[in-house]
# Entry
Amino acid sequence: MDFQRQTNKRLYEEHVATLQLLARVERVFSGRAGAYPPAAGDAEWPPFARALVSAIEVEVARHFEFEERDLFPRLDEAGDGDLAALLQEEHATIRTVAEPLADLLRQTLDAGLAPQQWQTLKTLALEFSERLGSHAQKEDGALLPVLEQLLDEDTDRELFGAYAAG
Ligand SMILES: [Fe+2]
Ligand SMILES: [Fe+2]
# Structure
């Protein structure tokens, strides 16, 4: 997708990266990337689990907070309150899955999991993937085109600058 506004370009790139990560999540948890649950001592599991925890708690959290703080209120003011409310609600649902998912992932690196918990982890991971994937695609199709009209050049520069600076 081709966007003029830097903010939209960045969000779109982050959605692409998210969808790539989720494709990997689906391969791992469906057992297509190797045995699931991983064997004790599997060398690939710890870096994967750590990367997924970090994606959930750092990248996704930061992206969500930016949209909620700087974009959804603008959408609301411009008369697209229904879309803003829907996307906000999806964030809340995704967070309720992401929190126990991150907890269990951390536990795999620490005390380990009982067989039943590996099953719970798989269910959470696949639900997280499905919900976040469809959310990102919905934003690509509905949020970004609206923002493209909404953000003027100065606002875009200001928002993008603040976001990029972290
Ligand atoms: Fe979002
Ligand atoms: Fe997003």
Remarks:
- The longest helix spans residues 115-150.
